[in-house]
Design a protein that fits this description.
By secondary structure, this protein is α/β, with parallel strands linked by helices. About 45% of the residues lie in helices and about 15% in strands. The protein has 19 helices and 14 strands. The chain has a six-stranded parallel beta sheet, sandwiched between helices. Helix 5 runs parallel beside helix 6, helix 9 crosses helix 11 and helix 13 packs across helix 14. The protein is globular, with a radius of gyration of 24 Å. The structure holds 1,4-dihydronicotinamide adenine dinucleotide. 1,4-dihydronicotinamide adenine dinucleotide binds next to helix 5.
C-alpha cells in the first residue's frame, strides 16, 4: 500500500481539531485538512488572531506552526474526502435522546451520515479510520454502508483508532501518548491499512507504544478504558462519603491506597463528581451493550459507576444547604468554575451545572465565574438544565461575574466546582472582606488550603474530610 500523503479529518471538535493539528505538525510531508459542517467553528479555526473554537493549553502554538503550511480547515467536505488517502471520522457520538436505547446507547447518526458522505463522493480507494468513540462492531456497519454505496473500483479499509487524549492536557497527551491503539481486520488488506496508519504515528510515537489489535478489541478497549477511569473516581468518591461520616481524610486514604503498586497513585482524587462529554456517555454505552448481549449483571455493575457520580453531586449540594442552616432561599452562592475540569472551556456534563441547578431550585441567587467558559454557553447549559424556567427569570437569579473576586462579593458561601489553579491563588482575605458573615467555603475539588482559609475566618467544608461534620 503506498504511503499516505493526504489526510482528511471529518469533525473539527475537541478531538478532530487537536489530533489532526498534531499530525500535521509532526508530519510536514502530509497534507491534513480538517473539515466540519459548522461554518462558524471552521471560521474560528481559520481566524487571523487565532481565537480558536476550543481552549486547550499548547493548541494555539501547534496551529500557528502548521496552519497554511500543511494544515487546513474547511467546510468543503466533499473535496477533502476526494483528495484524501486516509480519512479520520471524528464526529460526535452523544447518548441517544429518543428511540430504542434512549438514555444509554450512542447516537450514531453523525457517524453514519459522515460514512454515507464518504461513500457517495469518493472516487478512489480510502482508508477510513473510526476516531470517534463507538460501540463494538460499528466498523462493521460502516463497512456495509461504504460497500453498498460506493463507486466501482473504490476499496475501503476500515480501521479503529480511538482517541485517548484528555481535555486540558490534550496536546501533551498527543505529543507523548501512553499508547496509540489501531484495530483492523486481521486480513492481509486490513493489516496493510493498519501499517499505513502506524507509519503516520511512527513519525513521533515510539513504535513499542503503537499497539495493533483486532477491530472489535480496539473499539471495546476505548469503552473499557473510560469505564475503568470513571470507576476509580466513583470508588474514591464513595470512600469520600465514608470519610466525611467517620472523620477520616480522603486525601490520606487515597495516598495510602495509591502507594500499592498494583493500584498506583493517579486518578484517585475525590471530587464533586466527574463530568465531560465522554465518561458518562461511554459507560452508558457499555451498559447498553451489556444489556443487548444479555449480560444484566455486567450492565448493573457498570451502571453503578454513574449512579455513584450522580449521588456525589447531589450529596455535595445537600451539604451546602444543610451547612447554611438548612436553607439557601434568597442567599447568594458564588460558584467558582463552570467547566467540567480545569484547563478547558468545555462544560459538557459539568458537575457545576447540576450544582447551580440544585441551588436555583432552592431559590438561591447564584453568581458564577469561570476563566474560560463563554457566557452564552453558561446560559445555554442552565436553560437546558432548567427547561421550565424562562431565560429572563434565570437571568434575575443568576449573575455571571468577570472575576473570582466579583463573583464572591456579598455571597454567603463560595463553592469551588472546578479546580482552576487561579482559585488557589486568589486573594482570599479580600474575598472574605467582601462576603456576608459567617462566610462559608465548600471545596469540591480538594483545591484550597483549608487551614489557611480557616485562619482568615472562613468556615470551610472540604469534600471527603470529616473534621467539619
Ligand atoms: P465535538 O462535538 O467537539 O466535535 C464533533 C464535530 O463533528 C462537530 O464540530 C460537528 O459539527 C462535526 N460533525 C458532525 N457530523 C458531521 C458531518 N457529518 N460532517 C462534518 N462534520 C460533522 O466532539 P468531540 O468532543 O471532538 O468528540 C468526537 C468523538 O471523539 C466522540 O465520539 C467522542 O466520544 C470521542 N472522544 C472525545 C474526547 C474528548 O475529550 N472530547 C476524548 C476521546 C474521544
Amino acid at each position: 500500500m503506498p504511503a499516505v500523503t493526504k489526510v482528511c479529518c471529518i469533525g473539527a471538535g475537541y478531538v478532530g481539531g487537536p489530533t489532526c493539528a498534531v499530525i500535521a505538525l509532526k508530519c510536514p510531508h502530509i497534507k491534513v485538512t480538517i473539515v466540519d459542517l459548522n461554518q462558524s467553528r471552521i471560521d474560528a479555526w481559520n481566524s487571523a488572531d487565532y481565537k480558536l473554537p476550543i481552549y486547550e493549553p499548547g493548541l494555539e502554538d501547534v496551529v500557528r506552526r502548521a496552519r497554511g503550511r500543511n494544515l487546513f480547515f474547511s467546510t468543503d467536505i466533499d473535496r477533502s474526502i476526494q483528495e484524501a488517502d486516509l480519512i479520520f471520522v471524528s464526529v460526535n457520538t452523544p447518548t441517544k435522546k429518543s428511540g430504542v436505547g434512549a438514555g444509554f446507547a450512542a447516537d450514531l447518526n453523525y457517524v453514519e451520515s459522515a460514512t454515507r458522505r464518504i461513500a457517495k463522493v469518493a472516487t478512489s480507494s480510502k482508508i477510513v479510520v473510526e476516531k470517534s468513540t463507538v460501540p463494538c462492531r460499528t466498523a462493521q456497519s460502516m463497512r456495509i454502508i461504504l460497500e453498498a454505496n460506493s463507486s466501482p473500483n473504490c476499496r475501503f479499509d476500515i480501521l479503529s483508532n480511538p482517541e485517548f487524549l484528555a481535555e486540558g492536557t490534550a496536546i501533551n497527551d498527543l505529543f507523548k501518548p501512553d499508547r496509540v491503539l489501531i484495530g483492523s481486520l486481521q486480513t492481509p488488506e486490513g493489516i496493510a491499512a493498519s501499517n499505513a496508519l502506524v507509519e503516520i504515528y511512527a513519525n513521533w510515537v515510539p513504535k513499542e507504544r503503537i499497539l495493533s489489535v483486532g477491530l472489535w478489541s480496539s473499539e471495546l478497549s476505548k469503552l473499557a478504558a473510560n469505564a475503568m477511569l470513571a470507576q476509580r473516581i466513583s470508588s474514591v468518591n464513595a470512600l469520600s462519603a465514608i470519610c466525611e461520616a467517620t472523620g477520616a481524610n480522603i486525601d490520606e486514604v487515597a495516598h495510602a491506597v495509591g502507594y500499592d503498586s498494583r493500584i498506583g497513585p493517579n486518578f484517585l482524587r475525590a471530587s464533586v463528581g466527574f463530568g465531560g462529554s465522554c465518561f458518562q456517555k461511554d459507560i452508558l454505552n457499555l451498559v447498553y451493550l451489556s444489556e443487548s448481549l444479555h449480560l444484566p449483571e455486567v450492565a448493573e455493575y457498570w451502571k453503578q459507576v454513574v449512579t455513584m457520580n450522580e449521588y456525589q453531586k447531589r450529596r455535595f449540594s445537600k451539604t451546602v444547604v444543610d451547612t447554611l442552616f438548612n436553607t439557601i432561599t434568597g442567599k447568594r452562592i458564588a460558584v467558582l468554575g463552570f467547566a467540567f475540569k480545569a484547563d478547558t472551556g468545555d462544560t459538557r456534563e459539568s458537575p457545576a451545572i447540576t450544582l447551580v441547578r440544585d441551588f436555583l431550585l432552592e431559590k438561591a441567587h447564584v453568581s458564577i465565574y469561570d476563566p474560560q467558559v463563554e457566557h452564552t454557553q453558561i446560559w445555554s447549559d442552565l436553560s437546558e438544565a432548567l427547561p421550565l424556567v424562562p431565560l429572563p427569570n434565570l437571568q434575575k437569579q443568576v449573575h455571571i461575574a468577570s472575576s473570582a473576586l466579583d463573583c464572591c462579593k456579598n455571597a454567603e458561601a463560595v463553592v469551588i466546582a472546578t479546580e482552576w489553579r487561579e482559585f488557589r491563588e486568589i486573594d482570599w482575605e479580600a474575598v472574605y472582606r467582601g462576603m456576608n458573615k459567617p462566610a462559608f467555603v465548600f471545596d469540591g475539588r480538594l483545591l484550597v488550603d483549608a487551614q489557611k482559609l480557616r485562619s482568615i475566618g472562613f468556615k470551610v467544608t472540604v469534600i471527603g474530610r470529616g473534621e467539619q461534620l
